[in-house]
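User: Could you go from structure to sequence for me? I need the amino acid at each position, not a summary. Structure tokens:
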């Protein structure tokens, strides 16, 4: 399974795995599971860190580098195709980062790991949480 991690899912994976649902954590740990982090999530995290709304024990770039090295984390860039997909999304969620993750999951055929019920309501997005 290819799993695109919502920002909070990535943060919990890297620092507080007890907050992740047990079944999701089991799937994430499988050797055949490919974990993916969007550049949009990194952008969102850096904004929150800069505003003092997100605190991490390590520098963000060190967390991401460690996950790439130790868990073969894949990084997904934002592509033009992803931006075009935004146009067709219903306005269930107005957060631009969430909307980008939804568009990316649809375009790239990824399952989006998120606890956000607004994201899970999008009919074309495959999500996992429980």
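Assistant: Here is the amino acid at each position, in order:
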């Amino acid at each position: 399974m290819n799993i695109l991690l919502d920002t909070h899912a990535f943060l919990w994976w890297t620092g507080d795995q007890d907050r992740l649902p047990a079944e999701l954590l089991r799937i994430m740990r499988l050797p055949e599971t490919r974990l993916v982090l969007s550049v949009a999530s990194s952008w969102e995290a850096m904004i929150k860190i800069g505003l003092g709304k997100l605190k991490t024990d390590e520098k963000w770039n060190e967390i991401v580098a460690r996950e790439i090295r130790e868990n073969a984390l894949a990084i997904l860039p934002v592509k033009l195709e992803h931006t075009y997909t935004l146009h067709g999304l219903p306005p269930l969620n107005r957060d631009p980062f969430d909307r980008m993750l939804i568009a990316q999951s649809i375009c790239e055929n990824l399952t989006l790991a998120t606890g956000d019920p607004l994201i899970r309501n999008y009919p074309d997005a495959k999500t996992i949480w429980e």
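One structural detail worth keeping in mind: Residues 12 and 20 are 7 Å apart (CA to CA).
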